[in-house]
Structure to design on (333 residues):
């Protein structure tokens, strides 16, 4: 049975996305899966973020390789669109839903609207009270680890007891934004660092917005010791703004998250100081592995990374520096 996609999504895939390894260069509609009892509805907000593209590619690839019938649709973060697809999923023959919600606080409504279908949340973690063992789960990485690794690197690099800090955050209300920023601040505090947060603002994961906002901040002529960004795209935007404003990137560490190819090249070039690898491929495969278990009325207990309460499947973050960047520079291509 063929994987099916909304027409708008197909256009995006054809113009903007290459799948991993054996899928590279092919039209997604050409991939047939075997007839399967596993039918998955995958809802994603959009593909205008590098990481979400890679995660979606991994989910599609894992489904194809495991004989899973997958339908994927963009919701553009519209809650009414999400609920429309979810409410009708059972009647349309799906037995599992994978969902990247536009707003993680909408999880209770999404759960109630699923007509008792299991839901695997990805890339935007709902609160724990909205998850349920072996039914409503989250597959991803512990966002606080990313912020912790960033702060530990900066502490080690600067060796200062006090520092002026800039933080550019992702999407307001997103679990990654909240978790990463919280961990940066907590780690600095717990290590006795007197951090003066001279500029903290949302840049919505965007290179352009981050560049614009750091350029505006630079006009204040304040000294800055380190710049923490919730993802690599924003970090790269900051670096471009720094260069235009005459900052020395080699003396002011700019750190990101994801280990995109562009970020890894920037680290090799000596511009970006540090990033954290988020394994989109492994997250995608774990999501499909969980979907197969749920479709067969099994538990996720035997899946690597599953927690004892069977609400989470964790995929570890990994620290990336100039010393090991060669291991990661092609990981998200």
């Amino acid at each position: 049975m063929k994987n099916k996609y909304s027409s708008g999504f197909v256009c995006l895939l054809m113009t903007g996305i290459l799948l991993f390894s054996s899928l590279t260069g092919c039209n997604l509609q050409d991939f047939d899966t075997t007839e399967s009892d596993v039918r998955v509805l995958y809802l994603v907000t959009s593909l205008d973020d590098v990481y979400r593209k890679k995660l979606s590619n991994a989910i599609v690839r894992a489904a194809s390789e495991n004989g899973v019938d997958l339908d994927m649709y963009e919701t553009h973060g519209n809650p009414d669109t999400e609920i429309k697809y979810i409410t009708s999923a059972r009647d349309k023959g799906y037995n599992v839903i994978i969902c990247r919600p536009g707003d993680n606080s909408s999880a209770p409504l999404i759960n109630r609207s699923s007509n008792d279908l299991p839901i695997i949340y990805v890339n935007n973690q709902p609160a724990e009270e909205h998850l349920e063992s072996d039914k409503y789960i989250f597959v991803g990485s512990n966002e606080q680890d990313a912020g912790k690794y960033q702060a530990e690197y900066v502490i080690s690099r600067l060796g200062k007891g006090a520092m002026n800090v800039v933080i550019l955050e992702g999407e307001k209300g997103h679990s990654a934004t909240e978790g990463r920023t919280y961990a940066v601040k907590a780690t600095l505090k717990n290590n006795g660092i007197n951090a003066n947060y001279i500029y903290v603002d949302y840049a919505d994961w965007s290179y352009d917005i981050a560049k614009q906002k750091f350029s505006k901040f630079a006009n204040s002529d304040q000294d800055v010791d380190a710049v923490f960004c919730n993802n690599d795209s924003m970090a790269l935007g900051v670096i471009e703004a720094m260069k235009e404003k005459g900052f020395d990137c080699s003396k002011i560490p700019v750190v990101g998250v994801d280990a995109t190819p562009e970020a890894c090249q920037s680290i090799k070039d000596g511009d970006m100081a540090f990033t954290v690898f988020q394994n989109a491929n492994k997250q995608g495969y774990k999501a499909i592995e969980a979907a197969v278990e749920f479709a067969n009325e099994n538990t996720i207990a035997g899946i690597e990374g599953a927690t004892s309460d069977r609400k989470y499947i964790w995929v570890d973050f990994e620290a990336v520096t100039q010393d090991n960047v060669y291991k990661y520079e092609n990981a998200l291509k």
